[in-house]
Amino acid sequence: MKKNIVYVVILLILGAVFFIPGLKDKLQETLFPIAAIEKAVHISPEDYDIDLKGINTASTNLKNFKDKPMFLNFWGTWCPPCRKEWPSIQKLYNGRKGHVNFVLIAMNDEEDAVRKFLKENNYDVPVYIAQSPISEKILPKAFPTTFLLDKNGRIIIKEDAARDWNAKSVHQFIDNIIN
């Protein structure tokens, strides 16, 4: 009798998964995050074509960073949450700069203010100011905005708020995409 009840409950759960719209996708994203990665938004080669003026590094173009995963952050010295997350970004950079390209783009900021901020805080994460238009796919609506892109241009993480970027979970996530 108990066996029959267990089978009925299992059948009801499976029926709900297949017949309730969206439940299957929600469960799949929750239980199998790789499925979410497979459906991730891709950044096209044209979206990478952004001329970058280096502040504490050489000037370049964003498309030159497509060889490995990228930590792409949009921030400003005028933004308190941006300033708050900087120490964790610096720590992440110190531990992962050989495996991930770091591109931090100062937005709506004066070059002198950015240089002063970096110098006062001894930050050496590569910082740039965009010199050409930024694609709508990655143009931030809020600050800070951070993307973690895999080497194929898939947006793996998009965060529209300050975060502890040196957390163990972030390091584990990076381990998964660099292997």
| Rg calculated over all Cα atoms | 20 Å
* CATH topology grouping of the largest domain: Glutaredoxin
- Main-sheet strand order equals 2-1-5-4-3-6-7
What fraction of the residues are assigned to beta strands by DSSP?
A: 15-25%
Return residue spans where pLDDT drops below 50 for at least 5 consecutive residues: 31-38
Number of helices: 6
Profile the largest sheet.
Answer: 7 strands, mixed
The tally of structural domains comes to: 2
Q: How much helix, percentage-wise, in residues?
A: 40-55%
CATH class of the largest domain: Alpha Beta
CATH architectural name of the largest domain: 3-Layer(aba) Sandwich
Subcellular location: Cell envelope
Transmembrane segments: 6-23
Organism: Chryseobacterium piscicola
GO molecular function: isomerase activity; oxidoreductase activity
